[in-house]
Structure formats: structure tokens, C-alpha cells
């Protein structure tokens, strides 16, 4: 497929190395050589490598891809996909490649039976999704930050490589009493009656293959989080009384592993959001957008947590 000197090809396993090199050129940082292989290995859905690369003179110039998954609503599982990696090489911006690759991807989605798309764009890409690609804003997330008085051990370990191993050992030691045998938890928004990402055993196995996270049990409550300049909560399913007890315990854990904040992201409509607002002033965060390709789902029915985002 050719257009204005660009050759456009569907993503394949053989082209994942080109995606890795494009990511390096765009973001000026490297990922593990097999990162995208693990991220786009969605064989559990029956579909893989849903996206397109543009090449100029045989060099990767742009990419757009989605990650297949299932949305659970009541007793039905809907084949869906998350709009994930969108990148254009600095030398090839302003050529319309983002829109062209996206439209090709949506056409492929329809052909493959994907009926619902969702995404979490930044402010730079949001206008393109809304004004040129027919997406709609379904919800807005809010960020809640709980400060912790602690020595910045993680920051020190990031700056001084010889401390990294010692820091990781300290994290394992401090989390050991809380760790569970599995990794990941059931979807809290589905528990509230929303349509949400189906986190069955296959999905959690896929997610944990490319995204390092921890699942701990604090009291009777399960908490799924990552460490990234703080404890970043992916999902938690608390009652109001539980959260009042859990936050001090999470602060203690954060303090013991040298993290100075706990970060929650919650849909405005969820119970977690309402509970957190009683304790912390929220900060406006990112929008949730959807593109319905034929699923019997309404905007107000669908919700997501931070654990559902591909960067978690």
C-alpha cells in the first residue's frame, strides 16, 4: 500500500523491531527489545497485531495500533480494543499519517469483528480523535494525590544505578507480608454495574507479561498498583470504612520503600471517586473517549480504571 511516497503495512511480528526503533526515535528512550512483542501478543482474544506502520524509504515513519480485549457488560463479552500507541517520527509530522493509519486500523477492526474502541488520549491528540476520527468523550478521570513523608529512596536509586539492586530488594522485603499469589484483581467498575474491561485469567496473564505491577492485600482489601515516582493505584475495591483504614497503611508501606506519594485516578462517576473526595481535593486528569463500531453499549454505561490503561 503506497501513498505520497509512504509504504503502509500492517503490523506483524516481523515488523515489531521497526516499532521499537520508531519508539526510540520519537521518545528518545529505549524499551526492552521484546516489549512490543509482549504488549501486542493478544492471542487470548483471537486477534493480534491490529495496527499499521508507515515507511518512508524503508524506514519506519509512523504507527497507529490498538490492543484487542473484551468488555464485560452484564452477562455479555464484547470484543473491543484500546487505542494504544500513536507515534510519528519528527521528520514526518504534518503529513496526515496519524489520520490515515487510524482510519485503516478502524477498517481492520470492523473486518475482524471488533465492535467497540476506547482510549485515553493526551491533550495533543484529543482534537484529532474528536474532530477528525469521530470519537466521543464518555467520561473524565480525576487524580487524587496523597502525600507521604519519606526519604526519596526510589529517586536516589534511579539516579545512582549501583543502588538499584538494593532498592529492589528493599521493596520485595517490605511488600512480602502483603503480596498475594496472583497479580491483578477483579474490575471494581464492573462490580458497580458499569460495562468495563473483562479481567479474566487470560487477560491478567497477558497484562502481567509486559507490565510490572504488584497486588497486595491490606486488611481485607485487595490493591493493585505500580511503583512509578510513588505508589500508583491501578484498582482497588474499598468500602468507605475500608478506605479510611487502608490509606494510613498504604502511607506506611510507601514510607518504608521511600515513596513520597500515593496516586489514585478515578472516574468521576465511581464510588472510589466519591470516597476520595471526602479526603483529597481532586485534580482534573485525562478524558476517556470511545468509538462505537456496533456494540450495544451507551456512553453512560462504560467506565474504566487506571489499571485498564496500556501504560499501567
From TrEMBL:
One GO molecular-function entry: acyltransferase activity, transferring groups other than amino-acyl groups
Domain N-acetyltransferase: 6-158
UniProt-listed InterPro entries: Acyl_CoA_acyltransferase, GNAT_dom
UniProt entry tagged with the keyword Transferase: yes
UniProt organism field: Mucilaginibacter oryzae
Keyword annotations: Transferase
Xref: PROSITE patterns: GNAT (PS51186)
Protein name stated in the entry: Acetyltransferase (GNAT) family protein
